[in-house]
Design brief:
single chain; alpha/beta; Rossmann fold; 6-stranded parallel sheet; 12 helices; about 35% helix; globular
């Protein structure tokens, strides 16, 4: 399967990241590896979106700290970025609204549309915007220089960084001006691009709790976007999905990451990380990267049980 036929994917992970752990980053890497092995997908980017301060979770530290820790955790990654949009809103945002924001934002900054899971794969949904001059790449002897989706993601990340909204203490973060126009300089091949929600099996299981999620939101998240699930502690994802009529309805839109190794909950759990910090447990280095640990100690975070 050629690169232009494969579905190009941006993985989006929402959560408290209080603090962000090695396991959170490992989930991205594990999901990307698995999607590539299927031969159907190319992962061109990853987005970490920390939750708003008004989420109300006990012990949730300020988004200023959580954004900084997330940025420190991905500073060596060339494909995962931290997005502060969710934290900058007036109040808490649903996962559904975060997905829709990033889909709409990509439409605006590229001038093109993104597909959802019901879009036929034979239909090109990312390409040269309509009503503009033809693509400049007409020399078929020089096709290797034609930008692919991965180059597009790099170009967008670079451009979005230049038009970031500078805010106190978090100037390093990409914040996109929704009225920004990147112009017509970026031209690229026609590809199919989707934003998929990346989550652990614990979030998948939460879909089965009556009243916790709106059915309409679940329809959008699983039906329109699709999700990639990284099982934790040997969770039986098939059993979980059988407990929800909506998950059963959209089984084909749920990609369960499978490999020979288990993904232990301990290295993902922010709760276990906070407890290790409070008790001075040396195993905290198994959960958190050193830059994140250094920042936590410097800022005196999670020292008490209340956060």
């Amino acid at each position: 399967m050629t690169e232009t036929i494969k579905t190009h994917v941006i993985l989006l992970s929402c959560g408290s990241f209080n603090p962000i752990t090695k396991g959170h980053i490992h989930m991205f890497e594990k999901a990307r590896d698995y999607l590539h092995k299927t031969g159907r997908f190319i992962v061109i980017g990853g987005i970490i979106s920390p939750v708003h301060d008004s989420y109300g979770k006990p012990g949730l530290v300020s988004s200023r700290h959580r954004l900084t820790m997330c940025q420190l955790a991905v500073q060596s990654s060339d494909w995962i970025r931290v997005d502060p949009w969710e934290c900058y809103q007036d109040t808490w945002q649903t996962t559904c609204s975060v997905l829709e924001h990033h889909r709409d934002l990509m439409k605006r900054v590229t001038g093109c549309i993104l597909s959802n899971v019901s879009t036929p794969s034979t239909t090109p949904v990312i390409g040269q915007p309509q009503n503009q001059t033809p693509p400049i790449y007409q020399n078929h002897n020089n096709m290797n220089h034609k930008p692919n989706a991965i180059k597009l993601w790099g170009k967008l990340s670079e451009s979005l960084g230049k038009i970031c909204c500078v805010r106190p203490h978090i100037e390093r973060f990409t914040f996109v001006d929704e009225n920004a126009n990147l112009g017509t300089a970026v031209r690229y091949e026609e590809i199919e691009l989707r934003i998929l929600l990346l989550c652990g099996s614990d979030l998948l299981e939460s879909f089965c709790i009556p009243g916790l999620w709106k059915d309409s939101d679940m329809e959008v998240i699983v039906g329109d976007f699709g999700i990639v699930v990284v099982p934790r502690d040997g969770a039986d994802t098939e059993r979980i999905m059988n407990h929800s009529s909506i998950l059963r309805k959209y089984t084909d839109n749920i990609i369960v990451v499978k490999d020979a190794t288990n993904h232990p909950m301990a290295i993902v759990s922010s709760t276990k990380s906070r407890l290790a910090l409070q008790h001075g447990d040396s195993h905290v280095v198994d959960y958190l990267s050193q830059p994140v640990i250094d920042y936590i100690l410097q800022s005196q975070l999670y020292i008490t049980a209340s956060g």
